[in-house]
DNA sequence: TCACCATTCAACCCAATGGTTGACTAATAT
DNA sequence: ATATTAGTCAACCATTGGGTTGAATGGTGA
């Protein structure tokens, strides 16, 4: 059994690396093969393949194998989960940002 | 110079541990000392103190030292940053979830 | 002054991450 | 048939992460 908390662990950790965020960015526009995902980076294909795997294990990427090529597509659901978690804090930062904005607008009221 | 991407790295990684998320949860209700933050966990104070430090380095916690006790308060700004990043994917998952919901409502249309 | 308390620091341990290379598997193209 | 291509796997390496313990720092209270 994998708990919700463990889900969040994997999701947030997967998002915590620039290579993987860049991969997600590309996948948000269209499906790509592992090779295509790897191409922009100065790292071995094996390394990139590992990144894809951790995205997959976080549920962020779904892979369908056709012949020898693996097609990856973004599964945005876990992003929604992460967003939901953040959502419970939204009230806090909007309050904070509103206060900041007010301060910028009327500095004399300090 | 610390880039925006590195900021996101630290933020997402900080969120990728249940202990730290629990600490943030508590801090979202009120300020707490390091000792108070550590108390609920079955780990040494030193270990908890490290978690606080990584939250601080991600910018999620601000610390003010008064005498020998360190008071921590949540700084929600980086959460807003993370949310902003996720926001650019929101269109994707709402579309997806809407499609799913429609499917559940009218399964015959498959 | 002296004991105590809140916290960090330093050294250490083990497991996980992020990368490499080389071998392997299996599908495709010539 | 053979060479090439897509991708994984396994072994390895260095760094980081998460935990421990014991000592150090520096306020606080009697």
| Largest protein-protein interface | A-B, 31 and 32 residues
**Segments of chain A where pLDDT lies below 50 for 5+ residues?**
none
What is the 3D shape of chain A? elongated
Calculate the mean pLDDT score of chain A and round it. 92
Instruction: Please estimate the helix content of chain A.
Output: 55-70%
H/E element order of chain A: HHEHHEEHH
How would you characterize the largest beta sheet of chain A?
Answer: 3 strands, antiparallel
Estimated radius of gyration of chain A: 19 Å
Number of helices of chain A: 6
Estimate what percentage of residues of chain A fall within beta strands. 5-15%
Strand order of the largest sheet of chain A: 1-3-2
Assembly state here? homodimer
Class inferred from helices and paired strands of chain A: alpha+beta
Distance between the termini of chain A: 52 Å
